[in-house]
From TrEMBL:
Pfam families: TSP1_ADAMTS. PROSITE patterns: TSP1. InterPro entries: TSP1_rpt, TSP1_rpt_sf. It comes from Loa loa (Eye worm). This is Thrombospondin type 1 domain-containing protein.
Length: 121
């Protein structure tokens, strides 16, 4: 096979998810990042390591429009990573339980019985 543009791997981000907060300040938005071959958009494994990785977490864009939170609001969350990702630091994630997020303390990654990586914060 002759290498051309199809031999180049790029990061392909998903759209930004919903804000983790429905009230107050401090919410975050997350998105999936996948390394894919430019021409086919098929998974490209570790071939994106040399390219600049886009951000996957950002402050909510609409945070200034959210109403204040009641004093008792709080939540915990788990971020679950896809088991076929390359390394823990770059794993794509699924977001659950962050509707009333107030801040985070990151814990170590762990593996559940299905082989998914999880990180509490």
């Amino acid at each position: 096979m002759v290498c051309n543009l199809n031999c180049t791997a790029d990061w392909r981000p998903s759209v930004w998810g919903q804000c983790s907060r429905t009230c107050g300040d401090g919410g975050v938005q997350m998105r999936l990042l996948r390394c894919v071959w430019r021409g086919t958009r098929k998974p490209a494994g570790r071939n994106c390591q040399s390219s600049l990785r886009p951000i996957a977490i950002r402050a909510c864009q609409e945070a200034s429009n959210l109403p204040p939170c009641p004093p008792s609001t709080g939540a915990s969350a788990i971020v679950a990573a896809a088991p076929n990702a390359i390394d823990i630091a770059s794993k794509p994630f699924l977001l659950k339980g962050l509707e009333n997020w107030r801040g985070w303390k990151l814990y170590d990654w762990s593996t559940d019985s299905n082989g998914n990586f999880r990180r509490k914060f």
